[in-house]
Amino acid sequence: MAYESENPAEAIGRTMGRVVRGGGVGRRIGLGVVAIVLAWAAMTSFARVEPGQVGIRVNNIAGGVSANSLPVGWYFAPPGTHIYQYPVFTRTYTWTAADTEQTAVNESFNFQDKNGLSLKADVAVSYHVDPQRASILFQRYRTDMDQIIAGPLRNAIRNAIVERAAQLGVEEIYGSHKAELIATAQRRVQGFFAPVGLQIEQIYWAGNIVVPDSVLAQINAKIANEQAALAAQANVATARANSDARIAKAKGDAEAIQVEAEAIRTNPEIVKMRAVEKWNGVMPTYMGGGAPMPFLDVK
Q1: Sheet holding 81-87, edge to edge
Q2: Is 58 helix (H, G, I), strand (E, B) or coil?
Q3: Taking the alpha carbons of 195, 198, 202, 207 in that order, is the dihedral positive or negative?
Q4: Is the whole model's pTM more than 0.85, yes or no?
């Protein structure tokens, strides 16, 4: 039974208050005591499923788990009955070495590369619970969401990272395979928890992967050397391209000169034609007697 409009204890209290005000002194005292007892019973016998949550009713005496999820509202929960709540909206948790997140405990993940080099990293997860499978999730782990995060979920993510990291070298984990490593872990964890109703939306690095300082220095030095080598190769390629271009131009010029020379040899009139083309039309200031006009051999 659900009471979505108001707190049942408050409703009972208001009803008994009206009864007490309508009787004599002794009766009012007796009914007041009864009202207090009933209010206390109501407060301890009802539980509320908060907005953004889904409830699972569990009978701790008989050991039964309700197959139907409980939406938001007040529910009758007598002694021996407990209602667990799971989030149906997206929540994020970060396992980190920092003391500014959910906990002051160092929860960062430790793992090794294929050569046994120890690494560590902060990891975050975004998740929510499928309302239709919330009872399956509880039946699997029999605990609340905080304990699932601290236990089964953390262990599954850690194992997935450890298994994939053990196949990679530190340079791959720190560089080219960093994204692939966490994506592989995400797929494995999603496949593991989806059947029981825990939907893993994303798993991601919450910071840099921490490697020993000496190893990090070697990685940075190697990266710098590789960049320098690439730059040198680019310079060589540029110089070779420029040289090839000059050679090609020289060959082209030589062939052009050779063709032009051959043309002049076979047809001398070309020289006169070129002279006329370049003449600006201005006659020489001084010209010897009997000399022909410049460029024109007039007879």
Answers
A1: 64-65, 53-59, 81-87
A2: strand
A3: negative
A4: no
The answer to whether the beta carbons of residues 124 and 189 sit under 8 Å apart is no
φ and ψ of 120, to 5 deg = -150, 160
The percent helix, strand, coil of the chain (3-state, each to 5) is: 50, 20, 30
Q: Where are the beta strands (DSSP E) in 189-254?
A: 198-205
Between CA 20 and CA 28 the distance in angstroms is: 5
For 65-110, the DSSP string reads E-SS-B-SEEEE--TTEEEEEEE-S-EEEEE-SSSSSS-SS---EE
Distance in angstroms (rounded) separating the CA atoms of residues 145 and 155: 14
Q: For 196-225, what is each residue's pLDDT tens digit?
A: 999 999 999 998 888 876 665 665 665 555
CA distances (Å), origin 259, targets 251, 253, 267, 274: 12, 10, 12, 15
Tokens linked to 68: 């139907």
| Tokens of residue 145, six digits | 């969401």
